From TrEMBL:
It is an enzyme of class 1 (oxidoreductase). Keywords: NAD, Oxidoreductase. It holds the Pfam family NAD_binding_2. It comes from Streptomyces pakalii. GO terms for molecular function: 2-hydroxy-3-oxopropionate reductase activity. PANTHER family: 3-HYDROXYISOBUTYRATE DEHYDROGENASE-LIKE 1, MITOCHONDRIAL-RELATED. Residues 7-166 form the 6-phosphogluconate dehydrogenase NADP-binding domain. The lineage of its organism: Bacteria, Bacillati, Actinomycetota, Actinomycetes, Kitasatosporales. It comes from the Bacteria. Its EC number is 1.1.1.60. InterPro entries: 6-PGluconate_DH-like_C_sf (IPR008927), 6PGD_dom2 (IPR013328), 6PGDH_NADP-bd (IPR006115), HIBADH-like_NADP-bd (IPR029154), HIBADH-related (IPR015815), NAD(P)-bd_dom_sf (IPR036291), Tartro_sem_red (IPR006398). Residues 169-287 form the 3-hydroxyisobutyrate dehydrogenase-like NAD-binding domain. This is 2-hydroxy-3-oxopropionate reductase. SUPFAM superfamilies: 6-phosphogluconate dehydrogenase C-terminal domain-like, NAD(P)-binding Rossmann-fold domains. Belongs to the HIBADH-related family.
């Protein structure tokens, strides 16, 4: 470990957090991690990190604290209160929240952290589990330029496209737009898949040629096998995309932007959850199109 690198605390070792924290260790960073499940802390330790017994224990000596948890309530739970990050991290520490939450939660967190002398960036990511493992995530950041410059070398160990999008909350706004585009894209692909299959076309051939033209997309490249094999093991759960569609529809309403197609897809995601598919990958939007088209799913 080179001692000139900042010491990192990592809170939240899930589908995304585990491989991301391991990429930091590979890049030479000293990483102390905490999460709710002991087996995930053990995995970090096996990869060369250090386990912590609590949030306070994880963050007390950290120069940079990175958080990767499911939604706004969890960010608030780990940040605030006597056992939280703000009360236990040192003054001058940099808190990089990589969770996908409401822009307002990020703005509030930055304001409250500033009172403790803690700097904050919101830095949500796109690229899913594969992007996390391969360290090719797209990272959209909100906050101060100087803090972004400090965090950039560290973020470069996690992703490929790293962009400061504006003040606090801007990263979350861009992430919300990302989730809008992804959901609508998956829905369009799902409709095409059902149409092609019902028409008796060779689906593998059809998706290959479509992906080579203007209809091609990262979504289709990443999710093609999910569609072909009906394999909906989660890279990104419907439950989380449901949360994100709530964020983008609410934020759009607040700024006076109409999302006519986004609103429909938000309802389709909600209906999948209601049918018990919340734990499946978001490519399972295919299941709702199949149901609507009369297939037994």
């Amino acid at each position: 470990m080179s001692n000139n690198l900042p010491k990192v605390a990592w809170i939240g070792l899930g589908i995304m957090g585990s491989p991301m924290s391991e990429n930091l260790i590979k890049a030479g960073y000293s990483v102390t991690g905490y999460t709710l499940e002991q087996d995930k802390i053990d995995r970090l330790v096996a990869a060369g990190g250090t386990g912590a017994s609590s949030i306070a224990d994880a963050v007390k000596d950290a120069d940079v604290v990175i958080t990767m948890v499911p939604a706004s309530p969890q960010v608030e739970a780990i940040a605030y209160g006597p056992d939280g990050i703000l009360e236990n991290a040192k003054r001058g520490a940099l808190l990089v929240d990589m969770s996908s939450i409401t822009p307002q939660t990020s703005v509030d967190l930055a304001k409250n952290a500033a009172e403790k002398g803690i700097r904050v960036l919101d830095a949500p990511v796109s690229g899913g589990e594969a992007g996390a493992i391969e360290a090719v995530l797209s990272i959209m950041v909100g906050g101060e330029q100087a803090d972004f410059d400090t965090a950039k070398p560290l973020l470069e160990a996690l992703g490929k496209t790293i962009v400061l999008c504006g003040p606090h909350g801007s990263g979350q706004t861009v992430k919300a737009a990302n989730q809008l585009i992804v959901a609508v894209n998956i829905q369009a692909c799902a409709e095409a898949v059902v149409f092609l299959e019902k028409s008796g076309v060779d689906l593998t051939a059809a998706l290959d040629v479509l992906n080579g033209g203007l209809a091609g997309s990262t979504v289709l490249t990443r999710k093609k096998d999910n569609f072909l094999k009906r394999d909906f093991a989660p890279g990104f759960r419907i439950d989380l995309h449901h949360k994100d569609m709530g964020i983008v529809t609410d934020a759009a309403r607040n700024v006076g932007a109409a999302l006519p197609v986004g609103g429909v897809v938000a309802q389709l995601v909600a209906s999948l959850r209601a049918q018990g598919d919340g734990g499946l990958d978001h490519s399972a939007l295919l299941r709702s199109v199949e149901r609507l088209s009369g297939s037994q799913v």
